[in-house]
Specification:
This protein has 10 helices and 27 strands. With 393 residues, the chain is of the alpha+beta class. The chain has 2 domains: 288 residues, no CATH class; 93 residues, no CATH class. Strands 14, 15, 16, 17, 18, 19, 20, 21 and 22 form a 9-stranded antiparallel sheet that branches. It has a 6-stranded mixed sheet with strand order 1-6-2-3-10-11. α1 packs parallel to α2 and α8 runs parallel beside α10. The longest helix is centred in the C-terminal third of the chain and has 18 residues. The radius of gyration is 20 Å and the shape is globular.
């Protein structure tokens, strides 16, 4: 059977009403979904959203997250609800949830993957040997990258993992997720999806270095204390002053997020890491580790370059499904891209639609993106657009 996908959205303020309306809209085209991925603004309760989703689509397995913005093919909302529903006899799905991600990411990943082996055996019997794990998690404790590595260790060597870090409308305090038997902060959820055809994944950022490379001379867990022997925040203050911006620890949040740190591998810019706050010693708080002696720079980007990067990611995802038709597209997009693009963010949605015309889209603005697939050794990203194409057949 052909895989079907459909999206829905609502901007109603009442959580139950918004979730019910969004799912009803999506169910008009997918009346009997097997998997739902739900995205809710930070003001919505994860517990209420989860219960409303299960009531609106009995028998459907859901995973979901709070966001810094919700995405469908209709565009971006903030504080709303978006959902992507999938169905088809060619899908086999199991969801799970785990708490205590900050203190013990290894255990959380183990819980998320406890039934993966049994599911894999059942799926193989039905001819579904290709799998993707959709992972949503609270990563403000700086453990997102480790969770991805541990999920890989608890699934299989070439397991494809996609997803993103929960948001809370840019407050960077206590974002929550829901799935399995969990609806909580400091948590992670996963949907392990076996399919007869491989899902396609693409990832790109489009940012450019704005400073010369600097050396991380003192670092801790998800923290950079010094760059080139100076307090890390002093480096940012100097950079901002050159742009006529005066930074203080309490007002720096948006500037830090929209000017992330690029991390080099050898002489090439390899990935980005997001500073989300400033500590008492002028240290930068991050959503993932950057080791001492690493070479880094401050990044920036213009709208056109970022849209072009999203187009490349979408084309990469389409190529990965052999150029065929997609039933649906998941889009995990960094909150910093939303800040930089501002009112132009719908250009990014339009870029995905141009590559996947007439295809339902569901996604959110994240505090970190996940794209771990064959040929890509790293799985945790910042400042990227991650495009995931679910093949129709």
């Amino acid at each position: 059977m052909t895989t079907l996908g459909s999206s829905g959205a609502s901007t109603l303020k009442d959580t139950q009403a918004a979730v019910t309306a969004a799912i009803a809209q999506a169910k008009a085209k997918v009346p009997s979904p097997s998997l739902g991925v739900l995205f809710v603004g930070g003001a919505h309760s994860v517990d209420l959203a989860f219960r409303a989703a299960k009531a609106a689509a009995p028998g459907c397995q859901f995973v979901g997250t709070q966001t810094a913005g919700e995405i469908t093919e209709r565009g971006l909302t903030r504080g709303g609800v978006a959902v992507l529903l999938l169905s088809g006899d060619g899908l086999m799905v199991e969801t799970a949830g785990a708490v205590g991600v900050k203190a013990n990411p290894a255990n959380a990943a183990k819980v998320l993957c406890a039934n993966f082996g049994a599911l894999s055996e059942r799926a193989a019997t039905a001819g579904m040997t290709l799998a993707t794990s959709v992972v949503l998690l609270d990563t403000l404790g700086g453990t997102g990258e480790q969770v991805v590595k541990d999920v890989l260790a608890n699934t299989r060597r070439f397991q494809q993992i996609v997803g993103g870090a929960a948001g809370d409308d840019g407050k960077f305090q206590t974002p929550g997720v829901f799935g399995g038997a969990v609806a909580a902060t400091d948590a992670a959820v996963a949907a392990h999806v076996f399919h007869k055809a491989a899902w396609g994944v693409g990832v790109d950022h489009g940012l450019r270095p704005m400073t010369q490379p600097m050396t991380v001379t003192k670092a801790g867990k998800a923290t950079i204390f010094e760059l080139d022997g100076r307090p890390a925040f002093d480096v940012y203050k100097e950079f901002a002053k050159q742009r006529n911006v005066n930074l203080t620890p309490s007002t720096a949040g948006n500037f830090l997020i929209s000017h992330e740190l690029g991390v080099y591998f050898l002489d090439e810019l390899h990935h980005a890491r997001a500073p989300v706050g400033v500590g008492p010693q002028g240290e930068l708080k991050l959503v993932a580790d950057v080791p001492e002696r690493a070479k880094v720079c401050i990044l920036d980007g213009d709208n056109d370059a970022m849209i072009a990067a999203c187009t490349r990611a979408a084309k990469q995802a389409k190529d990965a499904i052999g150029g065929g038709k997609a039933a649906a597209v998941l889009l995990f997009d960094c909150v910093c891209r939303g800040m930089i693009l501002g009112d132009s963010f719908d250009r990014e949605v339009a870029a995905v639609k141009e590559v996947f015309p007439g295809t339902p889209i569901g996604g959110f603005l994240t505090y970190g993106e996940i794209a771990r697939f064959r040929g890509r050794l790293d799985g945790w990203h910042n400042t990227t657009a991650v495009v995931v194409a679910v093949p129709e057949a």
